[in-house]
Specification:
Length: 444
Amino acid sequence: MQRGLCASRRAFHRYLPLAVGVAFAVSGSAEGSSVPKDPDPDFSFEDTIKLGPFHAAPFLVIKDLGYDDNLRLTREGTQTGDYSVTIGPGVRAVVPFGHRSALALWNELDYVAYANETDLNTVNGEFRGKLHFYLRDIIVFADGKYRSYRERPDDEIDFRMRHNTGNARGGITWRPNQRSRIDIFRESIRENYSSSSEPILPEDFPDEIASEAGERRAEAQDREENYLWVDTRLKIRPRTSFLYDFQTGAIDYDEDDTNRDSTVVSTTAGFEFDPSGPLRGYVRGGIKHVEPDDPRLEGYSGPVGRAQLYWKALDRALVKLQYKRDTVASILGENLFYLSESKSLGYEHFFTRRISVELAHGIADNSYAMELSDLSSCTGTGSGIVCDEKLREDRITTDTLTIRYAMRPGVKIGLAFRHWDRESNFDLEDVTRNTIYTTVEYVP
């Protein structure tokens, strides 16, 4: 318990200088007047107050107040439930530099507190900054984002790890006319994980194996990703735009034991529908190729896609459809990834202009390309344990009921009830979770 509290204090002191340092670093910038209209909402002056060169919007976050009946995502009969809340300060700020450039900053520092399981208390932090330089038809940009948070167990990771991720992008946005836009940029992503807990293994497994598995799963994900992107859109009808993107790059893992490095090439095309019409959202599909440097490892060449559509069926009804098929980085065995295909259908009914209720049902199928040890089939003891090897397949079903209240245009608060269930051909991975939590939604 004490270790969890001390780790939270250390994380708090680590993030506080970051936020303060960035603020003072730009405080000496020249005060500017208005900048050209930027389509990025992070550069909006709306709801800000002027503090010297800053146009700032401080805020206090109180979110995710609720109950989780399976915090550690363990099997039936071993679940641990608790109440939790997330609270913390944040600020959004824009600093214009004359008429040609502007800097946007966003910082949030959250403390996650549990009523009884205080060893899970933690501090999460997120910071992002964007610098835009405005030319006639071109925006030259440099974006950076850093996030550090302690993950809850999810689809694959069945123990809590701290995840530190950094993202940097640099490139140009070119708008040759009012109907088209082209983004060309370089993106670098840094992923680091650390583990202070162990994965859930059968009771007769030796402690040293559990500890080793915890460290191995955390370190196996440490990597750097570098990509070149071309992202375009062309308005072909008043409410419809054609979308196309191309991505090429490489994934380099830190571990030297196995060569998990790989190259990635993908391209997708689709359509985006304007929010002013009865149908809004986007749909896109294409091909992705993941080729590992080690020929003994399985890659992927096949279809990928994603869609998010909202259809205003009646004055008081909104139908929501979401779909995604893509590879997700994996930490299990020699798998570089698992293939995830998810789809969900939701219906939101508006009883009044402010009050609505949504019902949603989602299914996600996750499949692995390389065989894994099925721990439910293991025989033997100690270091002589032997397990069957087979391909793992999971189906995750989610049912959600959400009650929302619109405080003002673009801002909604709500209460959600969710049932999450994972069924796997690996019997030990069958798990259920029920949560109740508050929601805050902001649409700029």
